[in-house]
Amino acid sequence: MPSPKLIPLLLALIGLTLLIFGIWPGIDLVVTGYFHDANGFPVRSNAGIETLRNLLWDASLLIPLLALILAALAGWLRRPVLALSARVWGFVLLLFLLGPGLLVNGILKAQWGRARPVNVVDFGGTAQFTPAYQISDQCAANCSFVSGEGAGSMAMTITALLILWLLRDRLPGALYRLGQAAALVMLGFVGWQRVASGGHFLSDVLLSWLIVALVAVILARFLLTPAAPRR
What we know:
disordered C terminus, globular, mainly alpha
């Protein structure tokens, strides 16, 4: 399962991302500016994109509930359910609860106070832009730092890639690769949509991905590492 080196690597990437956007906070404004015009954020009013966005958001809420049911069923039956063990379903459940749930939505978005792009003065709002590293008072609830949907999409991507990897011997090679590509395209779409619609800054999305990836690696070390054989 994941190499122990991934934890310090992800911590370093989180620190580097904060450093880059701290030294050059204008990157966030420049990137968001590409998607903004005199009428606001055109992507925000695109019905097709919004429908797909909502479907993916609903899926990110449904998956942990499904994982809870399947983990409980696998534990009760003492055998895999849908070819996956209770440990795997438990990993998926905890990934969503601790990553997008507790750390992102429960702590960071509730306490950081960073205003969303659509609400800052630079893009027609009334709030002040603040760098990613700065805790502020420009937003009272459901704030921009970090992206909840970005976190949910990363959790879904990790879940999909993990399940595909565990079932790789049962899947045709083309289907396996198609599943991997679809998961990564979904991740990219959500990140793009959140920035292009003025819902989040680029730094919000990148850091949400890295934070959830870090949670996944830590959980995997406890739940997915094979137990040492008994003597």
